[in-house]
Amino acid sequence: MKTFTHFLGDYSRAFLRISLPALLLVTSLPGFTQTLTADFVSAGYTLTDLGSIDQLPAQNGGLTIRPEQPNTLYIGGSANTSGGGLYTVGLIRDPETKRITGFDGSAVLYAAAPNNDGGILFDQNGTLLFTRYSMNELGQILPDNTYISTPLTGYGVASSVGALAFVPAGYPGAGGMVFSSYNNAILYNVPYTKDVSGQYLLSNQVAEVSVYGVASGPEGIAYIPAGSAAFPNLSMAISSYANGTVVVFEVGNHGLPIPSTSREMVTGLTGAEGALIDPLTGDFLFSTFGGGNKVIRITGFEKPASIGENPADKQAVFSLHPNPSDGMVDLSLTNPASEGKIAVYTIQGTLVTEQILEGKIHHELNLSALPAGIYLVKVINGESSGFQRLVLR
After folding, report:
1. Residue 323 sits in which domain range?
2. From CA 85, how far away is CA 111, in angstroms rounded?
3. Domains of the chain: total
4. For residue 12, pLDDT beyond 60
5. Alpha carbon distance 221, 240 (integer Å)
6. Would 6 be classed as within a structural domain?
7. Are 212 and 6 in contact (CB under 8 A)?
8. Could you tell me if 236 and 228 are in contact, meaning their C-beta atoms sit under 8 angstroms apart?
9. Mind listing the pLDDT tens digit for each residue in 103-138?
10. Is the full-model pTM beyond 0.85?
């Protein structure tokens, strides 16, 4: 079991393993269960414990689903150990909703993945990437099965890495690679190139954001499908191992979280680890390192863009002027459709006002009755939608 060490330095792993049985005893007591927070229950989200996977060695690491194989889950086993591996298990889906309801059989070893942690994913060409704790490295298994491990310290990622993710198309920093430092609670954008073999060649990090306190011990990272309820702005979710929570943030520059927008979505967790958006349904899945070594599903999100579909094609393009504003705002819309609406939300996701689009370029918003602060403006323009921040003085 890992430890969060923002200030105190590393505790011994042996001490933590001795502590694990006591921790699991505490978490088995009444009232200590994973729970969706009230705002997200009200928005229609539901949490389902899918249980543990037969024959998957504890502790669970990260998890992923390849879009071309929607009925197979890849998940780390024996995480954080030299004997760690990536395993596969079949998925059982509801025939109508396509949601995952369970696991079809036992876990089967797919590839050795020593010291795998909260970040596991495949790129479109078949390169397998996984974060390695506690040596602060990026493991790479190339399409020809060559194994490479790339140290991250020299690129500006503080020890030790926890997770990684690619920023999806249509989000700020699209296409970029984001790493989290588990011990230091920092997320980084690290540029890269790829050679002909499929190997990722990294460059020095270009941006970083601290989530210490709000999402300490950041592990899994997932980008929330645009248009999902209670997410009026493009957002991301982070599994916070140290806090026992899943925390959501608005996405800022370089695909990194904006700390001031943090909201807890799930509390009462033990060992929040990987994070994944199901490419078939948009459901959010996360694994636990300990805490029963489970997979947990949250439903209520929008379905993500299809493979090969550019989400930018479905972004409603508009501008707000002036911004910051004293309350009177001109919303200028590119390519207005004949139907749609404008909605304004608080930074916490509460709807404060909405109006119908009238198929014209300019719309006047009178928000002078609202208190000063940061708001989120969502436009639905026919089949497209878009989000922007608005500051009221």
Report:
1. 315-392
2. 6
3. 2
4. no
5. 10
6. no
7. yes
8. no
9. 999 999 999 999 999 999 999 889 999 999 999 999
10. no
pLDDT in tens, 288-328: 999 899 999 999 999 886 433 444 445 567 888 998 899 99
What distance in Å separates the CA atoms of residue 240 and residue 217, rounded to the nearest whole number?
Answer: 5
Preceding omega of 324 cis (within 30 degrees of 0): yes
Q: For residue 307, tell me if it sits in a domain.
A: no
16 pLDDT higher than 50: no
Which two tokens mark 227? 């248009």
Please say whether the beta carbons of 287 and 241 come within 8 A.
Answer: no
Strands 186-190 vs 263-267: parallel, antiparallel or unpaired: unpaired
Q: What angle do CA 170, 174, 180 make, to 5 degrees?
A: 125
Is there a single domain that holds both residue 117 and residue 259? yes
- Cα–Cα distances (Å) from 259 to 133, 164, 166, 187, 273, in that order, read 24, 18, 19, 11, 20
In 3D, which of 139, 256, 130, 117 has the Cα closest to residue 188? 256
Instruction: Looking at the structure, tell me whether residues 60 and 135 fall in a common domain.
Output: yes
Q: Which CA distances in Å does 236 have to 39, 104, 221, 261, 283?
A: 16, 29, 7, 11, 13
